[in-house]
Design goal:
Strand 3 and strand 4 form a beta hairpin. This protein folds into 2 domains: 115 residues, 3-Layer(aba) Sandwich (Glutaredoxin); 106 residues, Up-down Bundle (Glutathione S-transferase Yfyf (Class Pi), Chain A, domain 2). The protein has 235 residues and is of the alpha/beta class. Strands 4-3-1-2-5 form a 5-stranded mixed sheet, covered by helices on one side. Bound molecules: glutathione. The site of glutathione has 13 residues, from loops. Glutathione binds next to loops.
Amino acid sequence: MIQTLMYGVPSGCSFGSIVALEWLGEPYRLCRIEMPAIVTSDAYRTINPVGETPTLVTATGERISESMAILNHLGARGIGKGLSFAQGTAGFDRLNQMLAFLTTSFFAAFGPLWYALEHGAEGPDKDVLRAYGAAQVAKAHANLEAMLGDKQWLLGDQRTLADAYFIGIARWTKYHDVVDRRDYPSLQRLFEKLEADPAVRFAHAIERGETAISTRGFKGEISLDDALRQQALAA
Ligand SMILES: N[C@@H](CCC(=O)N[C@@H](CS)C(=O)NCC(=O)O)C(=O)O
């Protein structure tokens, strides 16, 4: 069986896992999950009972959810490629710390803004959600800007899976006009560099449903029905 990533559209945080798979270069498939309709369906919940993307179904049929767990799973095989570090090393601890910041503080900062947008909040509710989200997003950007400083990548000279995850969340500012990334010049520099990366361009094309040119191991998309059938056969 080929590992399969269930990714969410539109604009899911699964974007980083697609980029990570491209950078890793091993064979993989993608399974497109519309949000919120399909991600909350009973069928999808048999793969991820929480009803969220991403979930990776591994080559041996295990299901791994939560971006950080998926990235660390892929990272264990990406050490030789410089994408991650061996557990027990200072490099791994730094990567883990960065991934934890990105998957909690940075990701969650957008939560109130998404809620206001997706639930059609109006009036004072909208104002409170927007004000809270704007403050959180600005704070997370300021903290990340300080962490990045003048380094090439989030962890230093080496491009890692933290950068893959970062770009999938950082682009959310286009939906929520609460910060101008140019006020955070190091983040802006990193953002532009990643946007030009072939794996990132591939992930954008995949999300948009356009012809996507894989740099490495992409073996095509499968439907949720096919993914469920494969799971049943593997069980
Ligand atoms: N902690 C999870 C969060 C996953 C999550 O919130 N995924 C969103 C997309 S970014 C989702 O699937 N939402 C379901 C929905 O929109 O109904 C992770 O890091 O993977």
